[in-house]
Amino acid sequence: MSPSALPAARDRLRVAIQKSGRLSEPARALLTSCGLSWRESRDRLFCYGESLPVDLLLVRDDDIPGLIADGVCDLGIVGRNVLAEQLLQRSNGGADKYREWRALDFGACRLDIAVPDGWEWDGPAQLRGKRIATSYPALLGAWLREQAIEAEVVPLSGSVEIAPRLGQADAICDLVSSGATLAANQLKPVLTLLKSEAVLAGPATPFSDVREELAALLLRRLDGVLRLKDSKLLLFQAQRHTVPALLKLLPDAEPPTMLQVDGGDTLALQALCHGAMTWQRLEDLKHAGARGLMVLPVERMLA
Ligand SMILES: Nc1ncnc2c1ncn2[C@@H]1O[C@H](COP(=O)(O)OP(=O)(O)OP(=O)(O)O)[C@@H](O)[C@H]1O
Ligand SMILES: O=P(O)(O)OC[C@H]1O[C@H](OP(=O)(O)OP(=O)(O)O)[C@H](O)[C@@H]1O
Ligand SMILES: [Mg+2]
């Protein structure tokens, strides 16, 4: 590689997120909960990082993998569906330039094959010789090859679900979340090619400057935030002999801290629980001997 082809060293990290769409608000909120703030510039394309040297680039989601591949930005928040499709489109035998760094637990959807309601589905072989409309031609093409099914891929950039009704295709391969769009078009999902959610994408190789430390800091904070999602601190007291049964009711809890109360048989327990702490669970714990149950929100955690 000639020196001029090396990505320029930078002392700030650039993170691309969707400008407007399904992922833009949750992506911003997630980065904010990692302690990032920017000089506000909602309508423009660039937000200057104030609390840390981490800037935001607001773009179309489809552009994010390419911006990372070209070194224009360092990290990006994008659907796994977009990342995987473009990884396949870009792969030409060489090493991938970017990869998924973290799954972010929002923007869940599936890339499904769907067929007309009237079809009696009896397996993938039924797609042989059929026309399948999709905005994910690389993912669909790779799956068809894997299955050794010859079918025609009809690439469309949107409104894929209407293609069978218009006679453009026999089946489709598109994103599904509630399934309402499929139902409205008399289609039914029969296969899932990819389970998707928003992901943090970053380069496949480490940065060679201060961005490496900035990215590591961001990842540590992100992991702390993701780990605490839905987590609560549970406080209660219990008699020592009831503790094993109580812990069985808390399979999602970290090993609890236990303190003896008044030198007697009563223990005060505190446990970080990662699942939802519903009223039903509290009632079950009470029934098993827990007293003075309290559920507290956890804002930050640094392991
Ligand atoms: N029901 C859904 N349909 C489509 N995408 C969904 C759904 N639920 C979650 N997503 C995720 O949200 C991402 C962004 O969806 P959106 O519809 O905002 O994209 P877009 O129209 O391509 O936006 P842009 O204008 O940035 O190109 C998808 O790539 C996918 O990962
Ligand atoms: O299973 P559902 O909850 O119905 O969601 C699935 C639909 O949502 C997306 O379209 P979107 O609404 O983003 O429209 P567009 O892709 O045509 O912009 C996707 O392309 C599907 O059409
Ligand atoms: Mg898009």
UniProtKB/TrEMBL annotation:
<dbReference type="Pfam" id="PF08029">
    <property type="entry name" value="HisG_C"/>
</dbReference>
<keyword id="KW-0479">Metal-binding</keyword>
<keyword id="KW-0368">Histidine biosynthesis</keyword>
<comment type="function">
    <text>Catalyzes the condensation of ATP and 5-phosphoribose 1-diphosphate to form N'-(5'-phosphoribosyl)-ATP (PR-ATP). Has a crucial role in the pathway because the rate of histidine biosynthesis seems to be controlled primarily by regulation of HisG enzymatic activity.</text>
</comment>
<dbReference type="GO" id="GO:0003879">
    <property type="term" value="F:ATP phosphoribosyltransferase activity"/>
</dbReference>
<keyword id="KW-0067">ATP-binding</keyword>
<dbReference type="InterPro" id="IPR011322">
    <property type="entry name" value="N-reg_PII-like_a/b"/>
</dbReference>
<keyword id="KW-0963">Cytoplasm</keyword>
<keyword id="KW-0547">Nucleotide-binding</keyword>
<comment type="similarity">
    <text>Belongs to the ATP phosphoribosyltransferase family. Long subfamily.</text>
</comment>
<dbReference type="InterPro" id="IPR015867">
    <property type="entry name" value="N-reg_PII/ATP_PRibTrfase_C"/>
</dbReference>
<keyword id="KW-0460">Magnesium</keyword>
<keyword id="KW-0328">Glycosyltransferase</keyword>
<dbReference type="InterPro" id="IPR001348">
    <property type="entry name" value="ATP_PRibTrfase_HisG"/>
</dbReference>
<dbReference type="InterPro" id="IPR020621">
    <property type="entry name" value="ATP-PRT_HisG_long"/>
</dbReference>
<comment type="pathway">
    <text>Amino-acid biosynthesis; L-histidine biosynthesis; L-histidine from 5-phospho-alpha-D-ribose 1-diphosphate: step 1/9.</text>
</comment>
<dbReference type="InterPro" id="IPR013115">
    <property type="entry name" value="HisG_C"/>
</dbReference>
<keyword id="KW-0028">Amino-acid biosynthesis</keyword>
<dbReference type="InterPro" id="IPR018198">
    <property type="entry name" value="ATP_PRibTrfase_CS"/>
</dbReference>
<feature type="domain" description="ATP phosphoribosyltransferase catalytic">
    <location>
        <begin position="60"/>
        <end position="220"/>
    </location>
</feature>
<protein>
    <recommendedName>
        <fullName>ATP phosphoribosyltransferase</fullName>
        <ecNumber>2.4.2.17</ecNumber>
    </recommendedName>
</protein>
<dbReference type="Pfam" id="PF01634">
    <property type="entry name" value="HisG"/>
</dbReference>
<dbReference type="InterPro" id="IPR013820">
    <property type="entry name" value="ATP_PRibTrfase_cat"/>
</dbReference>
<keyword id="KW-0808">Transferase</keyword>
<feature type="domain" description="Histidine biosynthesis HisG C-terminal">
    <location>
        <begin position="230"/>
        <end position="299"/>
    </location>
</feature>
